[in-house]
């Protein structure tokens, strides 16, 4: 399922819990510049972008290119899983796209988790804003994934997050979101080419 409605319901349903866990996500970007498409050079300043519950931040790909800093207040004996996904990646049949998945984190030590998908930065290939949801799951037991499910998850496309949570009997405890739009960094990521026209559809990346 790729409806936007469940995502919004999750955001509001778990807002109070998010405050209890003190879930924080902060994007940090360096200063730099990019020249593309024979246009004037795009100059980016360094930036620190903290996400907060109930606030929508809109930015470009440059500022989300690096894995964000993530922290939360862990409960002793609990495990945690971290997911980041784009529910708006339906522009060419990709469905919800899984950008990051780290399962069964002990406490708040991210290095202790099972990284199914390393962080993949947002790269929406169109001027439409895409929402990126970062979810934290608090667990009593491990999420066990077999080889077939791992292979499917590592495909990243068409991730059915509701089916995943139902299958493993878990639910998000916290959610933070950020909106990202195509910018010079993303055009360069797609190797320019016809992207110099800043397309409105997926035809140039399919």
TrEMBL record:
The keyword Ribosomal protein does not apply. This is Phosphatidylethanolamine-binding protein. It comes from Octactis speculum. It comes from the Eukaryota. Residues 1-18 form the signal peptide. The keyword Protease does not apply. The lineage of its organism: Eukaryota, Sar, Stramenopiles, Ochrophyta, Dictyochophyceae. Keywords: Signal. Pfam families: PBP (PF01161). Gene3D superfamilies: PEBP-like.
């Amino acid at each position: 399922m790729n409806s936007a409605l469940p995502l919004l319901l999750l955001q509001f349903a778990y807002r109070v819990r998010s405050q209890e866990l003190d879930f924080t996500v902060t994007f940090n970007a360096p200063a730099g510049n990019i020249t593309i498409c024979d246009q004037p050079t795009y100059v980016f300043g360094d930036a620190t972008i903290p996400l907060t519950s109930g606030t929508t931040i809109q930015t470009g790909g440059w500022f989300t290119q690096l894995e964000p800093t993530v922290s939360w207040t862990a409960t002793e004996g609990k495990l945690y899983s971290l997911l980041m996904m784009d529910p708006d990646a339906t522009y060419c049949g990709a469905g919800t796209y899984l950008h990051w998945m780290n399962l069964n984190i002990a406490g708040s030590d991210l290095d202790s988790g099972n990284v199914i998908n390393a962080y993949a930065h947002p790269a929406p290939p169109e001027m439409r804003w895409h929402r990126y949801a970062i979810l934290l799951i608090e667990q009593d037991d491990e999420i066990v994934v077999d080889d077939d499910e791992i292979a499917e998850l590592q495909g990243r496309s068409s991730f059915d997050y509701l089916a995943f949570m139902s299958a493993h009997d878990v639910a998000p405890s916290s959610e933070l979101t950020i909106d990202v739009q195509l910018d010079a960094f993303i055009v360069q990521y797609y190797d320019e080419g016809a992207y110099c026209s800043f397309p409105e559809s997926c035809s140039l990346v399919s």
